[in-house]
Design goal:
It comes from Noctiluca scintillans (Sea sparkle). Its main location: endoplasmic reticulum. The radius of gyration is 17 Å and the shape is globular. By secondary structure, it is mainly α.
């Protein structure tokens, strides 16, 4: 099935979201978490609810199941972040907050989307890809400012990066099949490159154990 990798990537993201839901529910705190990242993913999944019916994803029930569960998870995370907003005082740089990345993602979607038309459903597809690519940046920025990344948070972010890498493989596969979605591939390539150093540290932590320190001075 051609869309297997695409759906698999979002199932990995769903697992990450469930892990984060458990963490926030258990600790009643969002310390070290970016509310802007959660807002970005919420907007992304809402956008997917609109354009998914115009794609080949409608051919498989697994896509519907994943999308429904992802909507529930994103709304749940947004609610928990709102309820526990008082437990954090740290936020990303203004240029990385949702009021900056949202319009930037929309502008990029208008400029770079599949097809020749200036107004099409493909704009929403591109918006989702760019918003999700930019969505992780606030979380990475916050973790740079922390001495040590909490274990469940480290796994959450690691799974998100893996999810984007899997989707990037999907775009590469489509390219070799003759369907060129280079604009969408570009978004996931940028996401992977920007988070590659964290992914290296996370894999190192999984292999050797210990703490994950993502500050300016690397160390595990």
């Amino acid at each position: 099935m051609e869309v297997f990798l695409f759906i698999l990537g979002y199932y990995v993201q769903l697992v990450a979201s469930c892990l984060l839901l458990f963490k926030i529910w258990k600790h009643k705190s969002i310390y070290g978490l970016s509310v802007d990242t959660q807002a970005a993913y919420l907007f992304g999944v809402i956008s997917r609810c609109i354009w998914v019916f115009e794609t080949r994803l409608v051919d498989t029930k697994f896509a519907y199941i994943e999308l429904l569960l992802s909507v529930v998870a994103s709304i749940g995370l947004a609610y928990l972040c709102f309820s526990n907003y008082h437990t954090t005082m740290k936020h990303a740089h203004p240029s990385l907050r949702i009021y900056s990345t949202g319009p930037a993602s929309l502008l990029l979607a208008f400029l770079f989307h599949p097809g020749d038309g200036w107004w099409s459903m493909q704009i929403l597809v591109s918006y989702t890809m760019f918003q999700e690519a930019m969505g992780l940046l606030p979380q990475l920025w916050l973790m740079r400012k922390m001495h040590e990344v909490e274990p469940l948070t480290s796994h959450y972010v690691g799974l998100l990066i893996c999810a984007r890498f899997i989707r990037m493989l999907f775009w590469v596969k489509m390219y070799f099949l003759g369907e060129h979605f280079l604009q969408l591939l570009f978004a996931d390539v940028c996401h992977t490159l920007l988070s590659a150093d964290y992914l290296y540290l996370w894999f190192k932590k999984l292999r050797y154990g210990g703490r994950l320190i993502y500050s300016q001075n690397y160390g595990v």
